[in-house]
Design goal:
heterodimer; A: Rossmann fold; B: alpha/beta; Rossmann fold; 2 domains; eight-stranded mixed β-sheet; 12 strands; globular
Chain lengths: 347, 330
């Protein structure tokens, strides 16, 4: 099903390198992805895969060293100051650690009213107070009057994270970049926080870029959306969530899914595991040539995978994979008229 | 699997704090059999790490063990860990019971090579003969799927997090302890590394005969490795039983909600339960059952009296006045 919605945010050959002790680290390398209006896209990967750097670039916090980020078709780093300011309001970031991202000396009311007054969203303190109450209700901190005068240390981790979400909503963003927003919250309250975030999507039509290392959380949060898997700075697979979870194509995605321990003894003890050729994750400072997954990949082909960097290619409906072997097989299957390993495309 | 190696009876641990007394462990009793794997699962602040530290008497100085017994059975001998002299305790740790702490990165001496860490541990516990220690260390490193040639002469910072965790597990096994305690052994490790740790532990359990206690907030780890699972809430065990019973026939409302609050990756979307409210403050615990403010089955009695663990099935115990109602609802 081709998505007819307009892309809000487009990452076009996005790259970012950092310098570390005179060496160049490619944190993000040639990432291309369009996020459509009202969509949920999860960026998933292990530590060091570049998902946070990508998120920060989307939020306009760090400048790409190559490629572009477009917002409604316009390169954000070529905007004038007024436009860029608008962009920074339209795209809000929720950080991982609610203990570090809220000012401990400010009350919840002050944290939430400051942006309202600063950006003249609320014309006077009374209007700000009413709006803050609404925002607190939106993030399920009820009754709101119980929270207005509290300080962050008086709140639990889950409640603090809800305040962070409410703060992001003060400026009526169209895109929320949530970077591991539920990772630090205890499991018993994680679900309700995820439900709150989902509800906001339905109520406010917010577009989400949801960054997580946890594929199970990604699946739960973005079942109607898409998941993009990153490995060592590159995007290796993008697909609709049910497709990615049930029919992963890239050997790395397959390995990752098969390795995840499940909270169900019957499932987890009988799951088929993909065996990797090596357990060692290469250093970003010294990436292997060709496909950076090749030293670990069970489908590695010498002379191909260690020579050429695979591009992200369409291999089925709305599935893109960066793997020489998978794309070749898909092309052969198509040529021979065989059904591919993918389930048939929807009409 | 009937020989008991460890028995904990009515253990209470608290920390005096400015605001009051933190009741970290409240009346915990359990036993551990030879060769068994027991998982303690609970959320942050539930007291599970304190419980682990108490078992090897490594609690911070501020902690007070108010009462309880920790009995280790070995070769027909019983020793109460809480009554051991400093010297006996030193021998007991590592030789009888080893603990691998959370955050493997910080457990090594950063200026010593891996080999020295092995030699030092061996010497401190009276294991002599460098060649003998070296051979055992190399065997263990192989068992945890590390290349001894690369790892043995390395400094800790030269190893990845997963490698360090595996070295620590090997080090923990150096003196062939009867019991090994792992605190959050896979937390903060990448998934593929977690998988390798799980496989290593599974393999070691098959090859060596030791009992394993692990402490984790990660239910999946318990589902993977445990024979029995204990759910810890507000410093006490609220349910304990076989791993399949806990995941499929939990009787305590908290265990029920917890096991249904974590998404699986395999299969279609499943409904997740959210637990209202937040975990309690261990200084000001709710009266009666500590879970009652969050519990859908709470009655007046729950607000007044704390329920004891009672049998709810074959080898399964739950501390809930209304476990029958909870059972019928699910």
């Amino acid at each position: 099903m081709p998505d007819k919605r307009q892309p809000v945010v487009e990452l076009v050959h996005l790259s970012r390198t950092f310098e570390q002790r005179g060496m160049l680290v490619k944190a993000v390398d040639d990432v291309t992805l369009a996020v459509n209006e009202g969509e949920v896209v999860c960026l998933v990967g292990e530590s060091g895969c570049g998902k946070t750097t990508t998120g920060k670039m989307i939020a306009g916090l760090i400048r790409p060293s190559g490629g572009e980020i477009r917002y409604n078709g316009q390169d954000i780093w070529r905007m004038d100051a007024a436009q860029f300011r608008k962009y920074r309001m339209a795209v809000q970031l929720i950080h991982q650690d609610p203990y570090a991202s809220l000012n401990p000396a400010h009350s919840v009311f002050r944290i939430l009213s400051a942006p309202l007054l600063e950006h003249k969203i609320a014309s006077n303190p009374q209007a700000a107070r009413d709006r803050v109450r609404e925002l607190l209700m939106m993030v399920d901190l009820t009754p709101p009057d119980d929270f207005l005068d509290k300080y962050p240390h008086q709140l639990s981790g889950g409640q603090r994270q809800r305040v962070s979400v409410a703060r992001a909503l003060t400026v009526v963003p169209s895109v929320i970049v949530a970077d591991e927003a539920v990772s630090m919250v205890d499991v018993s309250i994680r679900v309700s926080l995820l439900n709150t975030l989902r509800k906001l999507k339905e109520r406010l039509g917010v577009t989400y870029v949801f960054i997580t290392h946890d594929l199970a959380v990604a699946k739960h949060f973005a079942w109607e959306g898409r998941v993009a898997v990153m490995y060592l700075g590159r995007m290796v697979e993008v697909a609709h969530t049910p497709q990615l979870v049930n029919h992963p194509q890239h050997p790395y995605t397959q390995a990752l899914l098969s390795a995840i321990p499940e909270p169900d003894p019957r499932i987890t003890r009988t799951k088929e595991r993909v065996q990797l050729r090596s357990l060692d994750v290469p250093s970003l400072l010294n990436l292997p040539p060709g496909c950076s997954f090749h030293p670990r990949c069970p489908r590695f082909e010498a002379g191909l995978c260690d020579v050429m960097v695979p591009e992200l290619m369409e291999v089925g409906t709305a599935t893109r994979v960066a793997c020489h072997v998978v794309t070749r097989e898909a092309a052969h299957a198509l040529r021979d008229g065989h059904t591919t390993s993918l389930p048939p495309a929807a009409p | 699997m009937t020989k008991t190696v460890l028995e904990v009876k009515n253990l209470w641990v608290e920390y005096p704090a400015r605001r009051g007394v933190v009741q970290a462990v409240r009346g915990v009793s359990f036993d551990l059999c030879q060769g068994e794997t027991l998982a303690f699962i609970g959320e942050s602040g539930s007291g599970k790490t304190t419980l682990g530290l108490a078992l090897v008497r490594l609690l911070p100085k501020s902690a007070r063990v108010r009462q309880g017994n920790i009995l280790f059975y070995q070769n027909g001998r019983v020793q109460d860990v809480l009554a051991l002299s400093q010297e006996d305790l030193r021998q007991f740790r590592w030789r009888d019971c080893a603990m691998v702490f959370q955050g493997a990165q910080n457990s090594f001496n950063p200026v010593l090579r891996v080999e020295s860490q092995f030699y030092d541990t061996a010497r401190a516990h009276g294991m002599t003969g460098t060649a003998h220690v070296k051979q055992r260390a190399i065997d263990l490193l192989r068992m945890v799927q590390l290349d001894p040639n690369r790892v043995f002469r390395s400094f800790p910072h030269e190893l990845s997090g997963g490698m360090r965790q595996r070295v620590l597990i090997a080090l923990g096994l150096l003196l062939q302890p009867q019991v090994i305690i792992l605190d959050e052994p896979t937390t903060a490790l990448d998934i593929l590394t977690q998988r390798s740790i799980i496989e290593v532990l599974r393999k070691l359990k098959k090859e060596l005969d030791f009992s394993l206690i692990f402490i984790s907030h990660d239910l999946s780890l318990a589902a993977e490795l445990a024979d029995r699972v204990a759910t810890v809430y507000a410093g006490t065990i609220v349910e304990i039983g076989g791993v399949y019973d806990i995941f499929e026939r939990a009787r305590h409302p908290y265990t029920q909600a917890l096991t249904h609050s974590v998404p699986t990756v395999t299969g279609d979307l499943r409904d997740l339960t959210s637990i209202p409210g937040s975990p309690p403050d261990l200084i000001v615990l709710p009266p009666g059952c500590a879970f009652h403010p969050r519990c859908p089955f709470a009655t007046q009695r729950c607000k007044e009296q704390e329920p004891p663990l009672e049998p709810v099935g074959e080898g399964q115990f739950a501390a809930c006045w209304n476990w029958r109602e909870a059972m019928n609802k699910t």
